[in-house]
Every structure is written in C-alpha cells, then in structure tokens.
Amino acid sequence: MARARAIPGATQTNSHVAYFVNYYSGFFQDDIRVSNKLTINVGLRYEYESGEAEKNNNMLVGFNQQALNPIQGFIPAGSGIQSYGLPLISNQNGNPAACCNALKDKFGPRVGFAYQIDDKTTFRGGWGMFYAPVYFGLDSQYSPGLSQTTTYLASTDGNATPANSLSNPFPTGIIQPATLQQGVLQQLGGTVTYPDQNRTQGRIQQFSADIQRQLPWGIALEVGYVGSRSSRLQFGSTGLAYLQLNQVPTQYLSMGSALTQKVTNPYYKLPNVTGALGGATVSQAQLLMPFPEYSQVLEATNFGSAQYDSMILKGQKRFAKGLTFLSTFTWSKNMDNTFGAGGSNYFNTYSGSTPSANAQNVYNLAAEWAYAAGTTPWRTTAGWSYDLPFGNGKRFLNGNKFLDYAVGGWSLNGTMIISSGFPLFVYQNNNNSGIGAQVQRPNATGLSPTVGGSPEERLNNYINPAAFSLAPAYSFGNVARSINYLGPGMANWDLSLFKTVTIREHFHAQFRAEALNAFNTPDFANPNTQFLGVDKNGKPVGNFGKLTYQANLPRELQLGIRLYF
Prior knowledge:
mainly beta; 14-stranded antiparallel sheet; three-stranded antiparallel sheet
C-alpha cells in the first residue's frame, strides 16, 4: 500500500511500514530488617528486548563489512577495486528477522542499605545495574527505497517562464516506492544507513552514598556522593548520530591533494550505480574508501560510554515558625564520548552555529572523550517560604482585627538557581569532506581560550581566538571535542509576596505579586564556536566567540488574586 502526502514543491509516496520491538521484564525486591539500626534492600530485575523489526521484513538488519557487494561481479578483473559491504535484508539469505544482537543475560541486581548511626544521624548507600533500551523511531533510513519524493520543477530558465503548471504539476508521473531489494540496489553511489547487527543494549551502573544529620531548629543536612558508569551507549538518537564508516584510511592522508585528483571510474555505467559514481571519472579518495561503491556508510552502533561523579550538599528545614526552605549544591564532573549530543545541546542550539554531530576521525574514537554537552560543574538551588510574624496568631501586632487586615497574612517566597555554564564545542569548516570525514576541529596553539570579565564585558570576545589555529586539509585538529572552558553561567531569582485574607470561614482570598527574573539578569547562550581563523589584526573572522543570543526573558512582573474555599 502506498501513501502520498503533499509537501511544498514535492509529493512524497511511502510504502506502509510497521516497526516494532518486543520487550519483556520482571523483578522482585525485598526489605530485610537486620537490626533496629540496619535495613537492607535487595532486588533483581530481568529484561529481554528482542530487537527492532519490521512487520513485513522491510528493513535492513545489518551490514556485512567483509562480504563483497554484488556489484563487484560487473567490475573488470584486474581493476584492483574491491567492493566490500553487503546490506543485510531482514529474513533473507539466513539473516535474522530483527536487529540487533539481543542480550539474554540482562540481569539488573540492586542493593541498598540504611544504617542509623544514632538518633540524629543516618548513613545510606546503594548500587544498581540498569539497561538502556535501544532508541528507535520511524526508521525509514533502514528501509531504503520505500519512500520516494517527486520534486516539482518550477522553471528551467531562472523563473522567466514556468516549466510546469499547477493543474498538471508532475507530467511524467509520481515516483512510486520500490521494493526493499530494489531500494538496496538504489543506494549504490549514494548513502546506505543501517543498524549495527553487533550492537547490544546500553548498560549503566549507578551508585550513591550519603550521610543525613538532624541539626537544631528543624534543619536536616545531607552530604552525599552520586556516580555512574555507562557503557555500550548509542551516540545519540537514530536520527542524530551515526558512525560514518566510509572514510579514507589515515595511511593515505599523506597523499594530500592527490586524493582529489580525478581518475577513471570503474563503476561508470554499471547497473543501478548513480549519485557520486554516476560520472566517467571519480576522485582518487572515493576508490580508497573502505566501501568505494557508496558515498557514505552510516552505522547506528553503540560504542558510547560515560562517567559521572558528583558531590551533593542538601539542607532542608521543615515548616516551623512560619519558615521552610530547601537548598542544594552539586559539584560534578560528567565525561562521555557520545558526540551525537554535542550538536543538540540547548545552549549551542541558540548560538547560531552548531557543530556536526559526528566524530572527527572514525578511526580514533578515543579522541571524542571529553566533557559531556550537559555538564555543569557546579549548580546551587534554593527555595523558601516565610510567613511574616505579624497579625492574628503571630508574634507581633496580633491584638487588633483591623490592624490584622493591614499587616497580617503576608508571606515572602522565592526560588534561586545559580550555576556554571555549559562546555564549548569549537570546530572549523570541514576541509576533510573529500575523504569522508564529517567534522574537523582546529589545532590548539598553547594559549588559554579564557577571557576575563563578566559576560556583558565579553559580548564580542568571549573566547580568545589566539588559542586556536586552522587545521589544514587531510589532517585532524588536536582540540578536544569540548574544551576546558565553559560558556556563560546562569543566575536567576524569582520572588513573590503573598497576602492572604480570610473573608469568611473556609473562604479565602490571596493577593499575589510575583517577579520572575527579579534582578533582570541576562542568561546568555553559548557563544558562536565556529572558528574561521583570524585576520591580520588578530581578530576572529565571522562571529567566533560572540554572544548573540539571550536564553532567558527579561524581568516579568505579575499581579493576581486567587480565591479558594
């Protein structure tokens, strides 16, 4: 069955596909009271995830990198070209119906304890193992050929005259979806995207320990450690992060510009070959790629890992004498190599220039280990509410009904968030696209990227451009995926003043005056991090290092009345 929908300037037709994953789980847990002071909690969870499949077997379930592609049979002997890479179609030629390597040993033990040191002090801790399910959505990229787009041709002479009419926009017809087998053949010369048949589910170990102490005045203080170790993670969602495997091996980079020279194309006029291989000549780099019959080979795999460590301070006062508050402080370090999250970082999204969500060098994934996109090394929050001690039932001015209407029933409330900024991902224009690399970072000069002063003082020079130099083509910059320098931090205060009046029994009115971002503090998004070099005066080219976006709103004042009964 085909479905068509209208999009501007084109019509898209799709075969019906139905992706699914079978998931099963079970668990048990128990609390064991060892003594009056010690309680232990133990549990075990088991999960089984069959892997992603398509109801009618219309998807790829892997890619055999060692097998020769059928197109190899059409290449003349002695050409020296080996067309490795065979897409694996669900339930064909002995291939499984689902992808990928489903684990059958996903046991997740958990253990925790609480020990009462004395009547005011408790020590708690725990450890658990968890499994991250494989992210998947409508993965049409795993079903090549089942979605086709027919583009409307408006003009052939620069819009001087129309080439087609709205009454008959597609005179040659609408391209219909192909079968999956045809779709695989159509990828020759183009991009093949597939899920790694050897990937498994991600594994996360989480652990924590803390001491809680009851202090005078009804205050509880907590000091703790929280950490995690994660492995076998996907680099990002299926739509964001792949490994581009079709990169020229590094031993050929010494050829330099010779990689761009045109040579005879052995795939010219072979069956089903189009795209980058449709011409009589092709670049030398194309024929040196691991899979020369494709322009790109995108693998959804799970080589990601992460490490998180943090110290947490927490103070909380239960409501007494009109006052309650909760305050926290977190000091943390978050590292990962899941580069797919770098480009989607909220603060980078609004910087006007986002890095590609790819590895710089697919043959050196260790170089992607750096601060995670969501890292904030320190963050403190607070929330409080204080009933002013005036009026009936309070400590002061409590003897006059009319005076109570003026000074009674008032309360002050507020929240506060102050935190450090997010990591910066510095990159440059990609000079390595011809060899199959999808992002390039600059080189470090040895100078510090840090610039002193407040963000307002650094609107046009938040990053020192002298800390970087452009990496030439056929090389990889030595700057880390995220540098050891953070974007602007956050400081936000929301304050409010409430006045509550009892009109009659069980019927109350409350006047509210609220100030959001009360001190009108701007929260700047990360600066532009695309390094384009410097001019003769040492100034950065383009908008590098400039703060161009305010991520929060100016002060907002709100007045309101609430009636409740």
